[in-house]
Amino acid sequence: MPLYEHVFLARQDVTAQQVETMVETYKGVIEAGGGTVEKIESWGVKSLAYRIKKNRKAHFTLLNISAPPAALAEMERQMQISEDVLRFMTIRVEQLEAEPSAMMQKRDRDDRKDRDRGDRPRRRDDDFGGDRGDRGDRPERNFGGEN
């Protein structure tokens, strides 16, 4: 059976629970067509490179699918009808990856960066933008060669 990676973008104003419901609906379509959904990854709400249907952010979700082409076509048809799905893309692959996708690995690296960085010196307010004291009067400027 052919293997696919499918990513879809849902509008930002739908809740995470509604996105999960959408995933379960599409999973049911695939299973009814004789296929299986091997892996589901929710990448969360991310900013878009440009506005899509007046949205600047979207819920990103990845599905690894093993299904006949007819089942995949039916799922894509239902996504086209849905107002909550902004975009989707399906790519046929030779084999499905068992480990987390690059997006999930990136999220793990970002989480590690958020940890406490130890005893770093704090920046004082007067280092940047603080009061510079009285600088006196400005010298007169000479414009146009006047002496």
UniProtKB/TrEMBL annotation:
Keywords, ordered alphabetically: Ribonucleoprotein, Ribosomal protein, RNA-binding, rRNA-binding
CDD domains (alphabetical): bS6 (cd00473)
Location of the region described as Disordered in the Swiss-Prot/TrEMBL record: 97-147
Highest taxon of the lineage: Bacteria
InterPro entries per UniProt: Ribosomal_bS6 (IPR000529), Ribosomal_bS6_sf (IPR035980), Ribosomal_S6_plastid/chlpt (IPR020814), Transl_elong_EF1B/ribsomal_bS6 (IPR014717)
Ranges of Basic and acidic residues composition bias in the record: 105-147
Record Gene3D superfamilies: 3.30.70.60
Keyword Oxidoreductase: no
Keyword Ribonucleoprotein recorded: yes
GO CC annotations on file: ribosome
Pfam families documented for this protein: Ribosomal_S6
Function field: Binds together with bS18 to 16S ribosomal RNA.
Family assignment from sequence similarity: Belongs to the bacterial ribosomal protein bS6 family.
Protein name: Small ribosomal subunit protein bS6
The gene coding this protein: rpsF
